[in-house]
Design a protein that fits this description.
Elements lengths: L5 E3 L17 E3 L1 H8 L12 H13 E3 H7 L7 H5 L4 E6 L19 H4 L4 E8 L2 E6 L10 E4 L1 E4 L2 E3 L5 E4 L2 E4 L9 E2 L5 E3 H4 L4 E3 L7
Parallel strand pairs: 3-14
Antiparallel strand pairs: 1-2, 4-5, 4-13, 5-6, 6-7, 8-9, 8-12, 10-11
Helix pairs in contact: 1-2
Length: about 210
């Protein structure tokens, strides 16, 4: 039987992230194909399992791991300008920092349409004034549930900031949010927002199985 070809990798490969290596290591050639896909390491650890690796390659032909999907959707993230010019009740996908807990009902290594994959992460936001309004959370919504007052967060560099009395703290200085660029991202609970109607324009999405056999 012909042996599978192998190749040398660099000192540390993000696709073998269980521990650091001080010397070059030999790994299956299939890792090169997976590495070229540039799956984010945040999409769980890539296991040493050729069966799963082949699944990844097939999944990436038609869709994206959820972390990559969110970055790919950045052109649809809502901004200060989007909110200020819209007075309607908005149906949104909320990618809050705890969104991972709301997608675990999806099966591993299976492609979903975004509206099905994130079915528990929709919210309704009705603006009251500026970035203040009320929200209803689709995950816990009930017939008699009252809307919750909420002021949207804003994203500066890599940090989500809360607005307090019309100000945010940037580099230890108080800055009035209204002086920030209109293309500054807004969000809920430290995560971006996307109009629900726009997620249908985006690729399919999956959650990667992270545990090796």
């Amino acid at each position: 039987m012909e042996k599978e070809p192998y190749q040398l990798y660099e000192k540390y490969s993000p696709f073998i992230n269980y521990f650091w290596r001080t010397k070059p290591i030999i790994v299956p050639k299939i890792y090169q194909e997976v590495k070229n896909i540039e799956i984010k390491q945040d999409c769980n650890e890539i296991p040493w399992n050729k069966k799963i690796l082949k699944k990844i390659i097939n999944l990436e032909k038609k869709g994206m791991c959820h972390q990559n999907w969110i970055e790919n959707a950045k052109k649809y993230w809502l901004t200060i300008g989007d909110i200020l010019k819209n007075d309607k009740t908005l149906l949104l996908l909320s990618l809050s920092e705890n969104y991972i807990f709301h997608i675990t009902s999806n099966k591993f290594n299976k492609l979903y349409n975004p509206e099905d994959f994130f079915k528990f992460k929709w919210v309704k936001f009705k603006k009251d004034k500026n970035l203040k309004g009320v929200i209803q959370d689709g995950h816990i919504i009930k017939k008699n549930m009252k809307s919750i007052p909420y002021t949207l967060n804003i994203k500066i560099n890599d940090k989500w900031l809360k607005i307090k009395k019309d100000y945010v703290i940037i580099n230890k200085k108080k800055v009035k949010w209204s002086t920030l660029p209109l293309d500054t991202y807004v969000g809920i609970d430290n995560g971006p927002l996307i109009l629900w109607k726009n997620i249908k324009k985006l690729p399919q999405v999956y959650i990667l199985e992270g545990d090796p056999d």
